[in-house]
Protein: Rhombosortase
Amino acid sequence: MAFRALNPTFLAVVFLVGLAQLISEHVQNLLRFDREAIIAGQYWRLLSAHFLHTNLVHALTNTGACAILWYLFKPHLRPLPAAGLLSLMCLLTGTGILFFSPHLTHYVGLSGALHALIIWGCVKDLMHGDRFGLLILAGVCTKIAWEQLGGDTSATAALINAPVAIDAHLWGALAGLIVALSPLMLHPIRFRAVQSHLHSQD
Structure:
């Protein structure tokens, strides 16, 4: 019964991440984020790169984090919309790296999209009057600021056997914020209703 309760999108993520660990290095090179290849027209890399990882520790860490987020934000994640949501977050994160982090020529990993999911989930929590989302939001923003200001990521880099792509976390977080707020910006009446709901909780 517990297995059936799992979100199919989460199971698909686990499957894809696991499969990516088994494919040949040649195929991985065709799927990873490669700036020159994307500019040349290989746009699928903006999506596929997120399911590749540098090693098993990297893959297990991100799938574990994904499981925690799916549990925390389960009320907001329906199976089919969740698949589209995660795909959109992957694409937006990859696009952010492509346009705004020219120094990042190669990238793999789900962490950028996971930062998007965290921010999106926190905003959804706040919209529903759950102030716990504010605590998580503050923690994630502090982490991202610390990374951008030169915080030491050497321990993580040693575990994943690669430099930590801190810009992926930044663009992922912004992608999550954009996705979470865009329905409100497109529907001002709904935005005012959410504002009133939040004020009523004070």
